[in-house]
Amino acid sequence: MSSLFDPLQAGSLNLKNRIVMAPLTRGRAGESRIANAMMADYYAQRAGAGMIIAEATAICREGYGWVGAPGMYTDEMEDGWKLVSEAVHKAGGLIVLQLWHMGRMSHPDFLDGDLPLAPSAIAPPGQHRSLMPPKDYVTPRAMGLDDIKRTVDDFAHGAQRAIRAGFDGVEIHGANGYLIDTFLKDSSNRREDAYGGSPENRARLMLEIVDAVIAEAGADKTGLRLSPDEVQGAKDSDYVASFTRYAELLNPAALAFLHVKEPSRDADQKPRIAPATEAMRRVYDGVMILNEGYDRDSAAAALQNDLGDAVAFGVPFIANPDLPERLRTGAALNVPDMETFYKGGAKGYTDYPFLKDAA
């Protein structure tokens, strides 16, 4: 039986507690897409987390698709991220970089007019809310085998740069309706080749990326994030069965951790057991991090019932740089300012008070 405040060994990553900072897009890299000193301050403030998973970071130009999001595909971007990793380490923290390809959730406005990439030519629903004014998502271009090989290589290069930039490891973004997630789910993957059809085929790109990233970062420094339920229009007709199979297929990789995002609350905000996460836990051999809707009590209960090994918190970390201490003492949490979530500048980013300041 574990508590939120016990240490955890995840591969070669030594977490001082089991409170993980979830990856959170904040849009502070500006037009340059380069991490900066303000971002270094933001992450260093949150170094009390057992592990920080830095925000989704584009691995290539054609995988980019959010205003102000950072990238990791040029030397300048690599140098910018060094500022962040050094600041977090100086503050006593542990940080990994999330490697991101947005797939069909990007837009030609980010891609010099090119169409986004996807497993199949199926547009996601809704509008791209990072663009002002918002624009409808477009029908993406179905990836050819050369596109797939190039993308696998881009993930590997992103991992290589992350390790050179001083990160303790990497997390592959396989969730939230982005590229890998759309391959995993049968609503967005209608391919009839080796990358579509059965769960084993739909997992092929994910597993190829996992292998390529491991070759650069090491399995003991590589994590993967998945979201079994429907997110941004990507859904699977039998998501519990499919993602249970994916968990089994990942076992041989011996990843440092598997990070599963599935709502832990129902529509009325009452606690619930996430069905796919629970099924994946039964078959997955490694460290599992839970995410989505947990608070102090539900996170503690999840660990006590062995539903996971750690819990990732998202929005609470935005407003509470010292979240682990607040959870430990039962102190009140700062209220997040949602208007500043994706806007540039320090307001609503590095200016939330610590407990010691409030006192």
Describe what this molecule looks like in 3D.
The chain has 359 residues and is an alpha/beta fold. Helix content is 32%, strand content 15%. The chain has helices at residues 37-45, 75-90, 145-164, 179-184, 199-202, 204-217, 239-250, 275-283, 296-304, 315-319, 323-329, 355-358; strands at 8-10, 13-15, 19-21, 51-58, 95-100, 117-118, 127-128, 135-136, 141-142, 169-174, 222-226, 257-261, 288-291, 310-313. It has an eight-stranded parallel beta barrel, surrounded by four helices. Helix 1 (37-45) runs parallel beside helix 2 (75-90), helix 3 runs parallel beside helix 6 and helix 7 (239-250) packs parallel to helix 8 (275-283). The chain is globular and about 55 Å long. The relative contact order is 0.15. The mean pLDDT is 97.
